[in-house]
Amino acid sequence: MSNSQTPLTYPTTKKSNQVDNYHGTVVVDPYRALEDPDSEETKAWVDAQNQITFTYLNQIPAREKIKQRLTKLWDHEKYGIPFKKGENYFYFKNDGLQNQSVLYILPILDAEPRVLLDPNQLSADGTVALLGIEISENGQLLAYSLSTCGSDWQEWKVRDIQTGEDLQDHLKWVKFSGASWTNDHQGFFYSRYDEPNEKTKLEDVNYYHKLYYHKLGTSQSEDILIYHRPDEKEWGFSGTVTEDGKYLIISVWLGTDYRNLAFYKDLTNPNAEVVELINQFEADYSFIDHDDGVFYFRTDLNAPRGRVIAIDTQNQASENWLEIIPQAPETLESVGILNNQFVADYLQDAHSQIKIFDLTGNFIREVELPELASARGFGGKRYDTETFYSFTSFIRPDTIYRYYMKTGKSEIFRQPKIDFNPNDYETKQVFYQSKDGTQVPMFITHKEGIELDGNNLIYLYGYGGFNISLTPNFSVSLLVWLEMGGVYAVPNLRGGGEYGEEWHQAGMKEKKQNVFDDFIAAAEWLIANNYTQPKKLAIGGGSNGGLLVGACMTQRPDLFAAALPAVGVMDMLRFHQFTIGWAWIAEYGSSENAEEFKTLYAYSPLHNLQMGTAYPSTLITTADHDDRVVPAHSFKFAAALQECHVGNAPVLIRIETKAGHGAGKPTAKIIEEAADKWAFLVRVLGVEF
Fold this sequence. Notes:
By secondary structure, this protein is an alpha+beta fold.
């Protein structure tokens, strides 16, 4: 039987003499052919790699036991946060092991719910997922989007809520867009790209986003083009109708740049032009609501941790902007209006804090929450006096609360029952010093009373990019790791949004190495404080977190026993040439820029593998339909890693079929992948299970 002490024989990967010249630096790219996922050569390579990987995984005795435990834990009711439209309430629920959650409707909260849309009926294997929904203001029409096999491409349809029947409306070639109904419920705004080449739609770059209005009962070819910029191929558009229906707010985004523009169109005047309210990419502007043309925004302009401002559209020069809620020591994530009050969602050291203010910015109260947890929700209409939110931590599943705005009282609305006692476990937050002296927070979760004897199994998970914050979050998969005696550690690396835009920018572009230094320092802190030792330390992360794992395992192969990079960005010189990859230039820089090339080349995981190095046991995961981070990243990295690696530690790639970047992945596939991941670590770390 193959194991971590017996070297594996990997498939031979055909090499070419491909060479590129970047600003005078010659870079070889021998596995370029793997960028074509549809070639017979690549398909044969995928089959050969999967055969080795699944043979290895299936021979791990603990795998079936892990899968059974995962399945048992997963089999509990999971409720989404209820919301109201028209006279009805809506919510998502998963009975336990359903591949996709089901959308329900009910007239009052204690009524018998009715199924409105069950995505599980759309495909036998659960690979058609419901990605987006938008219900008309009168609560009679549902616009919903579907994704097949995890693709970012969506198709939008419309359902009559009363009859449950779909109308004839069918919109295609939609990506990175929601839908927003007009208040007369006659149609909605959405954004799309032009129809792509059918054969290469999963790899081709996406440019020239366009904002349209679709009128119910008409074909997509008749949709009205509201706004586009043929002179700005990289601009994207999101159109949202204000609650009172008077304005269309157009947020203009440029890739993943945190800065955006804000335009608007007066919907009460059929001849109104689009007004460019904010036309410089200088800060983030998130529209909240308006009072008679005075627009409220959450922005980080001159406030990297966020504040609320008011802009009078009749007097819109920036010197006339009014600050309503000033920047606080905490990071202001988002703001809504309920009970005619601002509900502000803050992060305090990466856990939730909810504050309520009146419309002039006076503080009213803080919503009482336990510490070290995440609260999400607080949606609703402007004058609603009740709302719902979910509360979760690393060891407590999402509990739904009903919150009364007038009294400040919370009560449990739905609480899942799960075969796991959270009181047997604990989460603490520590602060450690990174390479340059920066203090970085880290959550550590484990069984109560573990011994700090240097022998604990650690799964160190990180992200560190795109202004995304890692807050306490419940995962069924994680419970199995904790039950095995494992420790779960999550550092809040620079590049994330935990401490606002300055924290984000400290991990971008030429400062990206800070992110890797923060992660490496987290591992070193865990070792220095007797939690673990290198031979019991595994690292993981997905997407930008896959890049993190790839960079750290190539920079410090001695520090980790195992690495689990998922759907990672591994080729930092060519990422911008596929699908939406160009959009990440704002975060990473581009190899087409001579200075930025030097930074990228210095840490690009694919280009920093060294021949004859013993790398950690590695299980790379990707999917054949990932059109966000194309699988070529993982394919090329796996081929190069297998060529360079010496020693007996397995370096494998697991390639999921009929799946994408992760959104909408069916429960069955999630459980299979989680079982494989933990079984791999059981094997290579020598876990008793």
